[in-house]
């Protein structure tokens, strides 16, 4: 799956030189992040205008429409994570009201699908990591802060400054004992 500054999103197969599907043509907001779900049957694309769009991967048309597309953040959606079997999605980004990390239910109509919004990260959340064993979300912000959220209780457990500049990357070890952060500096 490839995404570009021009907003185009294309899917390729290893053994074929041509694209299989063009999910999104050029001329849209820049792609900020994209992932397949754990089952590999859906892909999501976040963009610079705050939207998250989700497609079924096994499309037969050359330019399929997303089955879900909604504005998660008022300024930008920088990252997201599929939680459980893809019916629950977490997003990070920047919103005017500082609700910069959100939980969404994809099975509910788009007007009611926001489950919880965390007010955190002045100037926006840049990255997000889901820890399934512990049911935690870890987010990094533009000012170098890390927030850890319990998604079962929907509360912030911890906040600390890890860097002097924006957190650009988060990685979680497979046993979920440690996580690593990387920053713009």
TrEMBL record:
Alphabetical GO biological process terms: vacuolar acidification
Keyword annotations of the record: WD repeat
Database matches in Pfam families: WD40
WD repeat ranges per the UniProt record: 160-185
Matches recorded under SUPFAM superfamilies: WD40 repeat-like
GO cellular component: RAVE complex
InterPro entries assigned to the protein according to its UniProt record, in alphabetical order: DmX-like/RAVE_component, WD40/YVTN_repeat-like_dom_sf, WD40_repeat_dom_sf, WD40_rpt
Keyword Lyase attributed: no
Database matches in PROSITE patterns: WD_REPEATS_2, WD_REPEATS_REGION
Entries under PANTHER family matching the protein: DMX-LIKE PROTEIN 2 (PTHR13950:SF13), RABCONNECTIN-RELATED (PTHR13950)
Name assigned to this protein: DMXL2 protein
Natural source organism: Alaudala cheleensis
